[in-house]
Amino acid sequence: MTDRTTRRTPSLAPLDRLRAYATAYPSYGAEQIRRRLTTKDDDAIHADLMILLAETYHRQGLRRAAIETIADAALCDARLPPYSPRRLATLAVSADLAVFDARVGALPACNRYLDAAIHTTRPNSRRVLHAEALHTVAVYHHSSCVRGRAQLAMLTGRLPPADSVAVMLRHAIAAMDDGCRPGCQTPPTRPPPPLPGGVLRPDLHTPPTDYLASRVTRHPPTHTCVFVPTPA
Ligand SMILES: [Zn+2]
To answer: Which residues, 6+ apart, have CB-to-CB distance to 48 below 8 Å?
Structure first.
């Protein structure tokens, strides 16, 4: 028997295809995600789509739209079970956006992400490691360059040197060193490398090598080192 209604319904892009669009063609990806959001999905899928849309806007450089969308995603999360992985992804994207913009709320956002990671996953999990790493960047920007760097070095020391996350962390330490070197400025990476552990790139084991360094170099640190500014 042929279901004519089904045949007339336009096909919906699955999440994997939307991820691929968002990565390669963010503008088209955002359009497709918005279209998919107009259809009836269960709460978990809807939350995934909202998080992915926020990450896609971020990739496009539309950070105001990204911030508003991730705030909406947090409201959707309230309908999910308390330990849904979507909540962690939402908190991760919120913290990442706050660090990227060096907002006053970056440290509290990173604390919320880290607390949720600790309470939702096992100790020393990859999720906790990534949350701790992002937190060190907020410390570096807003509190103390020396403390942020020391905390990041300590995290790196817990990993085998060849581990992909360790490689990413060492790049970030080098970026922190550059930030405390007079006259050393690193051009921004465009588009911003995706956050490990969001919906766009859920993988926590092989993050983009330049992800964390790209967040470090977005803003100068709060110097507690012996930094001497370059004379004008
Ligand atoms: Zn410094």
So the answer is: 15, 86, 89, 199
Distance 224 CA to ligand 1 centre (A): 5
Task: Compute, in angstroms, the gap from residue 69 CA to the centroid of ligand 1.
Answer: 34
CA 226 to ligand 1 center in whole angstroms: 7
d(CA 186, CA 131): 24
If you measure from the C-alpha of residue 10 to the centroid of ligand 1, how many angstroms do you get, rounded to a whole number?
55
> Tens digits of per-residue pLDDT, 156-200?
999 999 999 999 999 999 999 999 988 777 767 678 999 999 999
**Exposed/middle/buried for residue 196 (C-beta within 10 Å: 0-12, 13-18, 19+):** buried
Q: How far is ligand 1, taken at its centre, from the CA of residue 222, in Å?
A: 6
pLDDT at 163: 97
Rounded Cα–Cα distance for residues 129 and 123 (Å): 9
Distance of CA 19 to CAs 30, 59, 141, Å? Answer: 10, 12, 30
Phi, psi of 126 (to 5 degrees): -60, -35
pTM attached to this predicted model: 0.90
